[in-house]
Amino acid sequence: MRFRHRDGTLVHLAYCTNVHQAEDLDGVLAQLGRFGEPVRERLGVPRLGLGLWLARPVAAALAHDPAAVDRLKRELAVRGLEVVTLNGFPYQGFHDPVVKHKVYRPDWAAPERTRYTLDLARLLAELMPDDAVRGSVSTLPLGWRTEWRGDDGQLEVLAKGLAGQDRPVRVAFEPEPGCVIETTAQAAALLSEVDKEWLGVCLDACHLAVGFEDPAAALGRLEAAGLAVVKLQASAALEAPDPADPSTRAALESFVEPRFLHQSNEGAPPGADDLDLALAGGLPGRAPWRVHFHVPLHADPAPPLTSTRPVLAATLAELFGGGTARTDHVEVETYTWQVLPDAPADDAGLVAGIAAELDWTRRELTALGLEEVTA
After folding, report:
1. Alpha-carbon torsion angle 168, 219, 10, 200, nearest 10
2. pLDDT of residue 307
3. Which of 98, 143, 250, 254 could bridge to 341 as Cys pair (CB 3.0-4.6 Å)?
4. Domain count, the chain
């Protein structure tokens, strides 16, 4: 979906396909008909944006096969789908039974991370519609804090590779709890020397909330550092207002699961590296908890739990409520649908849920004065 900001900026809204399991081209193509087109039809829009996740094997295959790229472009076009952003954070294996810390590997010390990201940027330049001003690729915040050994010049190689493309594509580092870049303050400090024409920040509203960051202050910090918000990931975290309450702890237990890491904070970082560790005494429980568990945007979890949707709403207001749009790519990224305690029972349930999240975001944007572009 597309929206026009009052300053004339064309704002693209998409949903991220890392919610779907596919690590070969046939799987990616199948998900366009299985999920992408039905979501578009449910929303009643002529064109729907996808934030494609192309695992390393898919990206490598497409990078060396122009015919396969054309096949993907045709499939997108016939189903009324467009791509202006890619999610390059997970490298591969994002739907393995256990992912946890593997999602941060390889990190930005490894040349293979650079090669993968540049392959994505080149592919995106070919996939973008002709009228797209630029593309974006989101990526991990350098690496997991205990494994990081420095980028060894990889960010400079990345920026030079992006500068050499025919169509502009920017790469966005996504602050996340527990990582080298955990907060916007760390982003401002650790990305101070990068080439800011090509490299910036992906602001994930769930991560922002788990860090107990104020959206206005966070955006001001990034702007003062000269770092663009290349992309917003519209997401909400799980919140427990009273984690000492037995019923609240029982409800939180239902969100403990083996696949993804669910970093948890009480008030501010540092916190516990996973929800089970927080429940086992890793956090004192004297103040509200926020948990890195992406929950649906349009509906709170069952009481006594809630979500950080107000932080997302405030972030959208800061980005789009003024006279100038402060980003042009918005990606709904609830990749956790299948591991929710009340996970959708079938494809139809997942389609309905994704469409409801996009509709919630659409209504928020239009309430802020953006005009939906339907042509």
Report:
1. 10
2. 98
3. 254
4. 1
